[in-house]
Specification:
Elements (H helix, E strand, L loop, with lengths): L1 H8 L3 H6 L16 H21 L2 E2 L5 E3 H8 L4 H6 L1 E4 L5 E4 L4 H10 L9 E10 L11 E10 L4 H17 L4 E7 L3 H17 L6 H9 L13 H5 L10 H17 L3 E3 L11 E9 L11 E5 L3 H4 L7 E7 H10 L12 E5 L2 H16 L4 E3 L6 H10 L4 E5 L1 H6 L1 E6 L5 E5 L3 H8 L4
Parallel strand pairs: 1-5, 7-8, 12-13, 12-14
Antiparallel strand pairs: 2-4, 3-4, 5-6, 6-11, 7-9, 9-10, 10-11, 14-15, 15-16
Helix pairs in contact: 3-7, 3-13, 7-11
The structure holds adenosine monophosphate.
The site of adenosine monophosphate has 17 residues, from strand 6, strand 10, strand 11 and helix 13.
């Protein structure tokens, strides 16, 4: 049985198809991130790390798997994510667990669990990691995708909202992707309740003009109707009452202060009274970042966030004002690629080690290690035997020197140092090769 399995595994993919063996593919909506993409992902990651460091945010990592109730209680039962997109299953001990669909709830959980309120406030956190949503896969939407985000916990002042928006904007701006900010306030529990009543009444009067989906949502989450992208709902939406007219004084003052800061900073923002965001935990400021020119497109936001003053207390912590944002890494990487961003060159190598034959390869691998430990940036191709392809590879890498070990050099205990530009070669004792190369490279 085992032999049969081993024989199968040794067959090439083509042979397996011919013999009718099913080739396993990644799950629908989940994708491998291969080196061609990793180059852009690295740009994204490096920018995130640089921004975190400039703005004084610290990295937090939370588990991918959480108790499912964490998300039910925070994101909200009537949201798309909780209603139909969460990967939920029973753990071996019977606990209902979920693969995280986002990380803000997990961070709020960690804030409570580790008593972070005892530390000087605010807590400025950033994260990066995989998220899972069982959505219909389509361009730019996956079931396993990555997000990074910045959160400020324990600060109520508008400046915290502004720093979060600034970070979200600067990320793209500094990577050469023109973006704009869509912003709105959805008020607090009190002023929103009054607004929702007014809105419900309005939409009820327009029920016959609404799409089927909105008719259903009207009962449970009327603010989400403002988000509807269906053609037939647009005129109804346009005449809907606007939340800004219903904000209580403190919510209005907070929002005005945020906008004044944005004006002061010269950030390009647009008031969007239909912007409500999908999750229950938001209060007051909400915003989304769009690539310039894509503002109206459905599900095109590059990222978004806002204030969530009630999240920590909803999860059993003390009242903790907070705000944050999340950007999708896949979207960021593809936008950066589209913007024609020139990738940084790979690290330049100092020397290439070429070898001829098995005996030489043994010496070469030791020399490779010795060079590396001595701080020399060294390249190799231990998988080729001929000298020509190896020297061609060395040429391509534009290394100044190649170290060549053939059978004669193995016998003599020497190595050839070849100046790649002039073609001049010298023979040195293999034990002195590292020192010689360092001298040539002016390495101390
Ligand atoms: P959200 O947490 O829904 O506000 O999403 C924030 C950002 O994460 C979005 O603007 C996207 O860039 C990204 N994102 C959300 N869902 C997905 C998904 N299914 N696939 C890829 N990226 C996503």
């Amino acid at each position: 049985m085992e032999e049969k399995q081993e024989a199968l595994e040794n067959q090439s993919g083509e042979e397996q198809i011919k013999k009718g063996v099913r080739i396993i593919q990644a799950l629908r909506g989940m994708k491998d991130i291969l080196p061609a993409d990793q180059k852009y992902w690295k740009l994204v990651f490096d920018k995130v790390v640089a921004l975190a460091s400039h703005y004084g945010f610290e990295r937090y990592e939370t588990p991918v798997l959480e108790e499912a109730s964490l998300f039910n209680r925070s994101i909200g039962k009537d949201t798309d994510i909780v209603e139909k997109e969460m990967y939920i299953f029973e753990d071996l001990d019977g606990t209902k667990v979920a693969l995280r669909p986002e990380a803000t709830a997990s961070l709020a959980r960690a804030y409570i669990q580790h008593g972070l309120w005892n530390q000087p406030q605010p807590i400025k956190a950033w994260y990066w990691g995989p998220m899972f949503r069982h959505e219909r896969p389509q361009s730019g939407r996956y079931r396993n995708f990555y997000q990074f985000g910045f959160e400020i916990l324990g600060e109520a002042a508008p400046i915290a909202d502004v720093i979060i928006i600034l970070l979200a904007y600067n990320f793209y701006h500094e990577l050469g992707v023109p973006v704009s900010i869509q912003i709105n306030s959805i008020g607090c529990v009190e002023c929103r309740a009054k607004y929702v009543e007014e809105l419900t009444q309005y939409f009820r009067g327009q029920r016959s003009h609404l799409c089927e989906f909105c008719k259903k949502r009207l009962q449970r989450n009327p603010m989400r109707l403002l988000d509807c992208k269906e053609e037939q709902c647009q005129p109804v939406k346009q005449n809907a009452p606007q939340i800004l007219d219903s904000l209580c004084d403190p919510c209005r003052e907070h929002f005005m202060a945020v906008l004044e800061y944005l004006d002061e900073l010269g950030l390009p923002y647009f008031l969007n009274h239909s912007l409500v965001r999908g999750l229950d935990y938001y209060t007051r400021t909400v915003f989304e970042i769009y690539a310039a020119g894509e503002e109206g497109a459905s599900q095109a936001a590059l990222g978004g966030g806002g204030r969530y003053d009630l999240l920590v207390s909803t999860l059993g912590g003390r009242p903790t004002p907070a705000c944050g944002f999340a950007h999708g890494v896949e979207r960021a990487a593809s936008k950066i690629r589209e913007a024609g961003r020139v990738l940084p060159l790979d690290e330049k190598k100092d020397v290439f080690i070429a070898q001829l034959g098995e005996q030489a390869r043994r010496k070469a691998v030791v020399l490779f290690e010795n060079c590396r430990k001595a701080g020399i940036k060294v390249a190799e191709n231990f998988y080729k035997n001929g000298l020509r392809p190896q020297l061609e590879a060395a040429d391509k890498l534009q290394v100044p020197y190649a170290l060549i070990i053939g059978q004669k050099e193995v016998q003599d205990g020497t190595v050839i140092i070849r100046d790649m530009e002039s073609g001049n070669q010298e023979i040195v004792d293999i034990n002195k090769a590292v020192g010689e190369v360092k001298k040539k490279l002016f390495l101390s």
